[in-house]
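Changelog-linked ticket: FE2/S2 (inorganic) cluster example.
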Amino acid sequence: MSTPRPAGGRGEPAGAPSAEETGHPDVILCPGGPMLLRGDHVVTDEDGRRHRTTRPVSAVCRCGKSAIKPWCDGTHKVLPPQARP
Ligand code: FES
């Protein structure tokens, strides 16, 4: 059992396990693609609407072209390399 840690400067809630403790990062930036979020999160879009994640891993669009923003729909794959995040 891990010892809860106080909230620190890394944006982690108090008691949240670290990446070292879980064995994987909570956030992964995919080169040329989305940002993967592991676990429960709330994503606020550019209009201020809040979207709660409902999957173990959620992909957040970083290219701005998804039809289902804030989530990635795979559109980044058909963009020219210079238009990808
Ligand atoms: S990053 Fe995948 S559609 Fe934008």
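Closing comment: Example verified and attached. The mean pLDDT is 83. The CA atoms of residues 41 and 53 lie 5 Å apart.
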